[in-house]
Amino acid sequence: MSLSLAISRMRGANYDKLRAFIREDAALAGKPRLLILADIIYCTLRYGAAFHDYHTLRFYNLSAKERASFITMGVNVKAVKQCNDINKRPIFEAKTLFNKTFDKYLKRRWVNLHETDRDSFITWLDGQPVVFAKRDFSSSGKDVVRFETKNFLDGGAFYDKLVAEHFDLVEEAINQHPFMSSIYPGSVNTMRLVTMLKDGESHLIFGILRVAIEGFVDNLNAGGCCCVIDCQEGVISSDAMTLDMQYMETHPVTGFRFKGSRFPMWEESVAMVNEAAKVCPDVRYTAWDVALTPEGPVFVEGNYHPGYGLLQLPDQVGKKEDLLRYL
Fold first, then answer.
1. pLDDT tens string 197-213
2. pLDDT 10s digits, 80-95
3. What does DSSP assign to residue 308?
4. φ/ψ of residue 275, rounded to 5
């Protein structure tokens, strides 16, 4: 990572969290806090590691060779800049534009509130007990709200609320496959499948399962957990891990055992993301959030800037080499 980027990142850092990480890492490593801080700065400059990389990937316990094997913030930012056209970023970050571009792979009804009047929305809503409202350019499960339509006097009142609260998109609820519901039925659990286009061909390079522990959002930042998927076999290959680095062999609510479980419709899911990756070839490095329904896989959303931490947290195995071979 360049010195200017490192300084920029440090200026925007959450220093309360940084101090907490330093205290915890120093205790775990049995080293003085000042030495840990110096090592964090070194790893930022040498490996492009943000301070949260140092903490969650446990750099304080790793050799130089092990540290160099991880995708860090700096490595990921460089890959995105090299592979993805910044002008195409809104296709993935404006949810209304993503749905329009990749409608073929959604396989559910949705409506853009900016292109729909009150009466048309009332007709669209008829017969739907649950819908999800979203805002463009939101991330990490934020601004995704589940609504039960019975709680509103009528569809018109619901439309007025959505417009007043600046929602952009409303979607039909996904009918989740029984396998995914057996993991945890309260959320639509998703596979994050990361593809890389090279020489016109799409390659599935990473896979992660994301599951809610409580609530209806599977995102790790919203209190969920994740585990690694073996992309060759379509099998969960690690225990689950939470954002605060707690490991779980089984889901605390359902008792579902993660490691070793095999996904249904795996070949169909891989075929779908590899086909969709060619729709916008100027964005070569993409993460797709895929849900399973009884009829097949569907997209929940796509990500212009694939997260790198999820890919390495559960098994603590560096995956930089797997990324670089496709750049």
1. 999 999 999 999 999 99
2. 999 999 999 999 999 9
3. S
4. -70, -45
Domains and CATH numbers, the chain: 3-68 (no CATH), 82-100+176-324 (3.30.470.20), 109-172 (3.30.1490)
**Token pair of 104 as six digits:** 């073929």
What is the separation of C-alpha 164 from the centre of its chain, rounded to a whole number of angstroms?
A: 28
Look at residue 141 and tell me whether its pLDDT is greater than 70.
no
For residue 20, the number of C-alpha atoms closer than 13 Å in the C-beta half-sphere is 8
Q: How far apart are CA 322 and CA 324, in angstroms?
A: 6
**pLDDT tens digits for range 305-325:** 998 988 999 999 999 999 999
Is 221 in contact with 243 (CB distance < 8 Å)? yes
Tokens of 169: 């998109």
Contact 155, 128 (CB under 8 A): no
**Residue 247: its H or E element:** strand 247-248
What residue type is 166 in one-letter code?
H
First and final CA of the chain: distance in angstroms? 18
205 in Cβ contact with 323 (< 8 Å): yes
pLDDT tens digits along 45-80: 999 999 999 999 999 999 999 999 999 999 999 999
Contact 210, 228 (CB under 8 A): no
Say if residues 91 and 286 touch (Cβ distance below 8 Å). no
Decide if pLDDT at 218 tops 90: no
Query: Whole-number mean pLDDT of the chain?
Result: 92
Q: Is the pLDDT of residue 1 over 60?
A: no
At 145 the three-state DSSP class reads: strand
Please give the pLDDT value at position 75.
96
Residue 297 near residue 291 (C-beta atoms within 8 A): yes
Give whole-number Cα distances, 211 to 87, 159, 314, in Å.
32, 30, 13
State both tokens at 13.
Answer: 């850092």
The tokens describing 320, both together, are: 């930089």
**Under the phi-then-psi rule, with left for phi > 0, alpha for psi from -120 to 50, and beta for the rest, what region is 90?**
alpha
